[in-house]
């Protein structure tokens, strides 16, 4: 794999994201001993001098994705792409320095490369007759993959994705749910999952709950721990969750996308043949502006939009049953009509959905006969029908 200048760089699959999965999912007995902490690891790495700059690797801030779990340490040494594999002795020195610390059971250090944008980067010559990129491969044993997305955060997308996945399972389908929000995973809390996934040695085994298979980076890090990764590391983590998890057999894999239109969304759109995308929005104009951006992104990547869901549509007073339109009403329906995409339904703003989500028992499980669960099941029926008829070519990026 080459950067823009043509220099050989480490493959993204060798990035810090893979390190995290390999280290944190390692099974086995842990000896009763004090483990090295983050400060001790950084002090050890601060003794390693990069011969190119004459400064320590810590001073240069090239140690990325540092993870410690039960004596297992993983990190990436991020170098200029032009150095490529010539930086292997530096990586090895870092790995040995940390391995020598008391309480360290194993160390996995990998090389990654990052190219900063700048005027000095030579441009590739124009290639007017470039061949189209190959179609992305699917996931063996998974019939259809759909994305649940939003243009911005705070619209309840993850809650919708969780309840939709369970509702699809209640229709008799074999369903999986993948949390693609690397920086702010919500699925562990929504399902009250506190355990780490097991492995087969080569594959990660998704955790099963409420009849569906579930995978999230949040299973591998503490809830209050920030994941500070660059784009290539995020792409590596997403690719591994998609390709190196035992999803099969599934009828539908639901991907809870992060908000916005960045690297994660493009990675998924390019790496797997999405059968379609669902846009979640609240009724207000501010949210709808960003929802349009999300829809435009899927149009550019040739992913069909299965429809729009209006979340927090109507507030229903739990005491008197009076309806109030706190965020407006009907905005998503009108937007769907303007954009000529299906309107999948409305989800009310009620305390029960928030309460069950915080408890880790989604409303379709806690109150399957309630109006809220019925709304999710009606949307699940519409989605299942759309997926069944959405025959399409694999997505390709449109270059303009």
Description:
The structure is a single chain. With 400 residues, the protein is an alpha/beta fold. It is built from twelve helices and 15 strands. Helix 6 (231-243) runs parallel beside helix 7. The protein is elongated and about 65 Å long. The chain starts with 15 loop residues before the first helix and ends in an 11-residue tail after the last helix. Residues 1-20, 23-32, 117-133 and 391-395 have low confidence and may be disordered.
What's the helix and strand layout?
Blueprint: H1 16-24, H2 38-45, E1 63-69, E2 72-79, H3 88-99, E3 106-113, E4 142-149, H4 157-170, E5 175-179, H5 187-191, E6 198-199, E7 204-205, E8 207-209, E9 212-216, H6 231-243, E10 250-256, H7 263-271, E11 276-281, H8 285-300, E12 305-310, E13 315-316, E14 323-324, H9 331-339, E15 343-346, H10 351-359, H11 363-366, H12 371-389
Parallel strand pairs: 2-3, 4-10, 4-11, 5-9, 5-10, 11-12, 12-15
Antiparallel strand pairs: 1-2, 6-7, 8-9, 13-14
How big a fraction of the residues is strand? 15-25%
- The CATH class of the largest domain is identified as Alpha Beta
Largest sheet: 8 strands, mixed
Class of secondary structure makeup: alpha/beta
* Rg measurement, Å: 23 Å
Unreliable runs: 1-20, 23-32, 117-133, 391-395
CATH topology of the largest domain: Rossmann fold
The gross shape turns out to be elongated
> Count of helices?
12
Which CATH architecture of the largest domain?
Answer: 3-Layer(aba) Sandwich
Tell me the name of the CATH homologous superfamily of the largest domain. Answer: P-loop containing nucleotide triphosphate hydrolases
Give the fraction of residues assigned to helices. Answer: 25-40%
Number of domains: 2
How confident is the prediction overall: mean pLDDT?
80
End-to-end separation in angstroms reads 24 Å
Multimerization status: single chain
